[in-house]
């Protein structure tokens, strides 16, 4: 009995330590949005499906020297699908930035003017784009804040508005998530 209990305890410790000792993985967005394998998960994305995701990114950061956790969450979203076996080609992510999150996509010069530090989000935006995400900014939010396209991180496209982007893509089957 004690021998069996000791063996079970050893197996438990080894299992827990292997889960705890996992290193973050970055299957689609390299270097950002680290995620972990969950071997016991029974609910996982289906790699045979096409995933159409529209992210309504509105939340800014309270600490401008750190990556906006919601920008990183987009990377996590993409990496979670990738870890489950969804090929990059089946993952269609459009991120529409507006509200307080708009400052996360300022180019380094404009970010430094505003926050006195380099933009920690710029490398994440570049990695998201490399991973296949389209990054859009609400043109209405830009105008209200006096921003121009050249004030933004390279590769960000200007949308007419967040609202019209949502009404364009949701009827096309995009699921909308709000961060």
Word description of this protein:
The protein has 179 residues and is α/β, with parallel strands linked by helices. The protein has six helices and five strands. A five-stranded parallel beta sheet has the order 4-3-2-1-5, with helices on both faces. Helix 2 packs parallel to helix 4. The longest helix has 19 residues. The protein is globular and about 50 Å long. The model has no long low-confidence stretch (mean pLDDT 92).
Summarize the structure.
This protein has 179 residues and is of the alpha/beta class.
List the defining traits of the structure above.
6 helices; alpha/beta; 179 residues; 5-stranded parallel beta sheet
Topology:
Elements: H1 2-20, E1 51-57, H2 69-83, E2 91-97, H3 108-115, H4 122-130, E3 134-138, H5 139-144, E4 157-159, H6 162-169, E5 175-178
Parallel strand pairs: 1-2, 1-5, 2-3, 3-4
Helix pairs in contact: 2-4
The largest sheet has its strands arranged as: 4-3-2-1-5
Helical element count?
A: 6
List segments where confidence is low: pLDDT < 50 over at least 5 consecutive residues.
Answer: none
* % residues in beta strands: 5-15%
Q: What is the residue-mean pLDDT, rounded to a whole number?
A: 92
Q: What form results from the Cα inertia axes?
A: globular
The proportion of residues forming helix, as a percent range, comes to 25-40%
Instruction: Compute the separation of the termini in Å.
Output: 52 Å
User: Over the alpha carbons, how many angstroms does the gyration radius reach?
Assistant: 20 Å
Main sheet makeup:
5 strands, parallel
**Which structural category do the helix and sheet elements fall into?**
alpha/beta
Helix/strand order: HEHEHHEHEHE
* Number of β-strand runs: 5
């Amino acid at each position: 009995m004690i021998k069996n209990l000791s063996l079970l305890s050893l197996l438990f410790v080894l299992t827990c330590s292997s889960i705890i000792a996992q290193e973050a993985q970055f299957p689609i967005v390299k270097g950002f949005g680290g995620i972990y394998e969950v071997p016991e998960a029974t609910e996982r994305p289906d790699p045979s499906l096409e995933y159409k995701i529209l992210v309504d990114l509105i939340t800014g950061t309270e600490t401008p020297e750190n990556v906006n956790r919601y920008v990183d969450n987009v990377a996590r979203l993409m990496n979670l699908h990738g870890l489950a076996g969804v090929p990059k080609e089946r993952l269609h992510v459009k991120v529409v930035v507006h509200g307080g999150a708009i400052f996360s996509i300022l180019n380094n010069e404009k970010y430094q003017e505003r926050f006195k530090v380099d933009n920690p989000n710029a490398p994440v935006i570049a990695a998201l784009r490399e991973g296949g995400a389209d990054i859009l900014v609400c043109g209405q939010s830009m105008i209200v804040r006096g921003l121009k396209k050249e004030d933004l991180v390279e590769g960000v496209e200007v949308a007419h508005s967040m609202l019209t982007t949502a009404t364009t893509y949701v009827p096309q089957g995009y699921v909308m998530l709000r961060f």
